[in-house]
Amino acid sequence: MRTRHPHRAPPDVRFSEPGSPLLAVENLEVRYGGIRALKGISLHVCRGEVVALIGSNGAGKTTTLRTLVRLVQPAAGTLRYAGEELTTIGTEQVIERGVSLVPEGRAIFPNLTVRENLELGAFLHRDKTTIAESLHDVEQLFPRLGERMAQEGGTLSGGEQQMLAIGRAMMGRPSLLLLDEPSLGIAPKLARQIFEAIRAIAAAGVTVLVVEQNTRLALEVASRGYVLRTGEIAREGSSKELLADPMVREAYLGA
Ligand SMILES: Nc1ncnc2c1ncn2[C@@H]1O[C@H](COP(=O)(O)OP(=O)(O)O)[C@@H](O)[C@H]1O
Ligand SMILES: [Mg+2]
After folding, report:
1. Rounded to whole angstroms, how far apart are CA atoms 231 and 40?
2. Which ligand is nearest to the CA of 73?
3. Structural domain boundaries, residue 177
4. Domain assignment of residue 129, yes or no
5. Which of 75, 169, 234, 246 has the greatest count of CB atoms below 10 A from its CB?
6. Could you give the CA distance from residue 241 to residue 82 in angstroms, rounded to a whole number?
């Protein structure tokens, strides 16, 4: 897969080296009325990494991703992406800078064809050559979508719809891909294929932050992870460390 971004100006050099932080969240706090959904969390994702954010229902995972793309307003904290403070810009500008969110529950257009759904993801790229290249890349990534281009999105299986949602995000040629529970409600075989695709996306140079309740699957693909528990980071470490951690094993791996 190609990952050229000819339209994008190079970001701040300190943030453009491999291994440097692309995303840095510090002391992020989010409130919904009286509820503190995030109680001052800090995390970072380096360029080229796959990082997992794991935790049970209600831990604050979706809130974290929605705050990053400026759909939720933080009460406190800083969000830096490629050296820029995200709280000073809006959702559209965050997307223009190369951040793409695949939301929980997928949200594809059921009455549009697979091809039309994918083309909608390319709204930042009007030239036909780039769109054709991106479509080709997505077909390589998900051959099942390639076989179903003319089919309506709503007729796809849950797993195929998740592939479509990820494919649509990839049509925007993001630098940072945010995924909200890509394996939720999906047959294990397709969930595995989706995580293999995430691995391929990362290998092509896209940085990934993936939220999951399927801890094992997420940590098999991610190199590092954070455990979010009721709005706080309870653990962080390499995937290997987390998979061996007694608390993680008991609470999240059913050991
Ligand atoms: N729009 C909202 N209004 C009020 N409370 C919310 C809203 N969204 C989420 N919450 C609450 O914030 C907490 C974190 O939710 P969420 O980020 O969706 O968790 P997760 O994605 O880890 O399941 C939960 O207690 C949830 O009920
Ligand atoms: Mg959620």
Report:
1. 8
2. 1
3. 48-73+92-252
4. yes
5. 169
6. 28
Q: Say if CB 65 and CB 178 are below 8 A apart.
A: yes
255 residues of the chain, pLDDT tens digit each:
544 444 444 444 444 555 679 999 999 999 999 999 999 999 999 999 999 999 999 999 999 999 999 999 999 999 999 999 999 999 999 999 999 999 998 789 999 999 999 999 998 777 899 999 999 999 999 999 999 999 999 999 999 999 999 999 999 999 999 999 999 999 999 999 999 999 999 999 999 999 999 999 999 999 999 999 999 999 999 999 999 999 999 999 986
Question: pTM to 2 decimals?
Answer: 0.92
Tokens (6 digits) for 37: 């959904």
Q: Which two tokens stand for residue 93?
A: 């500008």
The CB density around residue 54, as the number of other CB atoms within 10 Å, is 28
Smallest Cα–Cα separation from 75: which of 179, 209, 231?
Answer: 231
User: Residue 159 maps to which CATH number?
Assistant: 3.40.50.300
- The residue written with tokens 């007694």 in the block is 246
What backbone torsions phi and psi does residue 228 show, to the nearest 5 degrees? Answer: -100, 125
146, with CB counted inside 10 A (0-12, 13-18, 19+), is middle
Q: Is the CB of 62 under 6 A from ligand 1?
A: yes
Written as one letter, the residue type at 130 is T
State the distance from the centre of ligand 1 to the C-alpha of 37, rounded, in angstroms: 6
